[in-house]
Design goal:
Number of strands: 0
Distance between the termini: 31 Å
Largest sheet: none
Mean pLDDT: 86
Low-confidence stretches: none
Number of helices: 4
Shape: flat
Number of domains: 1
Structural class: mainly alpha
Helix content: 55-70%
Strand content: under 5%
């Protein structure tokens, strides 16, 4: 919901624009591959460096996936750098809140789980 309050870059709303299917397909390919690289790095770190069991592996992968997806929202919202086109305080705050909640969840589960990381 907070993305609705975000600022839009002036050049993106100065005139009507058509969808660029070539750009969208390139974007999907690049971010799909990048996401896979992060997943494999996470798998390697959890399995080879931390020797995680299955519950720890699922927890670590959940945390990496949610936090990286939340941060990607800040990157893809503009074609400029994040320093030139700053997100609205609501969007930035929601993104940080999601990251914090994601880090807290494994330690606050109410059923018979112990902290995994």
């Amino acid at each position: 919901m907070t993305i609705a309050a975000d600022r839009v870059d002036p050049e993106l709303v100065s005139k009507p624009r058509r969808w660029d299917i070539h750009f969208i397909s390139k974007f999907m390919l690049v971010f799909g591959l990048l996401s896979s690289v992060f997943d494999y790095l996470t798998f390697g770190a959890l399995l080879l460096l931390l020797h995680a069991d299955s519950a720890q592996f699922r927890t670590g992968w959940f945390m990496e996936s949610v936090i990286s997806a939340s941060m990607i929202v800040l990157v893809i919202r503009t074609r400029q750098s994040i320093f030139h086109s700053k997100p609205s305080p609501y969007l930035f705050g929601a993104t940080i809140a999601i990251a914090i909640i994601t880090l807290i969840i494994p330690y606050t589960l109410s059923w018979d789980f112990k902290p995994y990381l």
